[in-house]
UniProtKB/TrEMBL annotation:
Classification of source organism: Bacteria, Pseudomonadati, Pseudomonadota, Candidatus Muproteobacteria
Keyword entries, A-Z: Membrane, Transmembrane, Transmembrane helix
Cross-referenced InterPro entries: Ccc1_fam
Protein name stated in the entry: VIT family protein
Coiled-coil region list: none
Length: 240
């Protein structure tokens, strides 16, 4: 078996899958949708590439800033709750002991056995506080909300996700490039979905298909919007 600290680090590292999945799927879907829309509207290669690069960079900064601020806010609220509950245990020790005793009783222990455990834990205040926070309040101790790590993972995964569908537009004919971009996007999203399914103990195929369906829907919507723009403006987008 793995040592406890190593297990904890692995769990915390897996917590970054949230930012990774969010960043790469948003980079893939938003970029391929934009490219499909612009290609459908008749934009030339230069405009498509510039729009794609601009979208990727601005999206990466926006997403990383959002990830940092949201993760920082979540962590600050979490830490504040831990602090308040530590003060509660200090100021109202008997109420805290009763709360932990009730939890243990609901979990199946007899009140006598629960009382012995609570009494033993209370002899070491730090252990009692940590147990009360985790068991009674559901406030675990794992630090899975590091704001800087969340921002970096989000930015990097968004850039990678956006660069994949943009790459075919560098050299291939636009019609072919869109098909290749859509195929690459679908393949990567299917792989990411399978990876997520494996970590979550779910069906890898089903998870991959879920991600793939979202990619196809986003591409179709983007292409449809582009066609609608072309129809309403009366022709393809101007070259320059």
């Amino acid at each position: 078996m793995l040592p406890t600290d190593e297990k904890r680090r692995r769990i915390e590292a897996k917590g970054r899958i949230r930012e990774f999945v969010f960043g790469i799927q948003d980079g893939l879907i938003s970029t391929v949708g934009l490219l499909a829309g612009m290609q459908a509207a008749g934009a030339n290669r230069f405009i498509i590439l510039m729009a794609g690069v601009t979208s990727i960079l601005s999206g990466a900064f926006s997403m990383s800033a959002g990830a940092y601020l949201s993760s920082k806010a979540e962590k600050e609220i979490f830490d504040n709750e831990l602090k308040k509950e530590a003060e509660f245990v200090e100021q109202e020790p008997y109420l805290a002991q009763e709360g932990l005793l009730e939890f243990l009783h609901r979990e199946g222990l007899s009140r006598e056995a629960g009382y012995r455990i609570v009494k033993l834990l209370h002899q070491q205040k730090s252990v009692f506080v940590a147990t009360f926070q985790e068991k009674v309040l559901g406030l675990g101790g794992a630090d899975i909300n590091n704001p800087l790590k969340a921002a970096l993972v989000m930015a990097l995964s968004f850039v990678i996700g956006g660069a994949i569908p943009l790459a075919p537009f560098l050299l291939l004919p636009l019609d072919v490039a869109l098909l290749v971009a859509a195929a690459l996007t679908g393949a990567v999203l299917f792989g990411v979905g399978m990876f997520k399914g494996r970590l979550a103990g779910q069906s890898m195929g089903r998870s991959g298909l879920e991600f793939l369906a979202i990619a196809l829907a986003a591409t179709g919507i983007g292409y449809g919007i582009g066609k609608a723009v072309e129809y309403f403006v009366g022709g393809p987008l101007p070259v320059g």
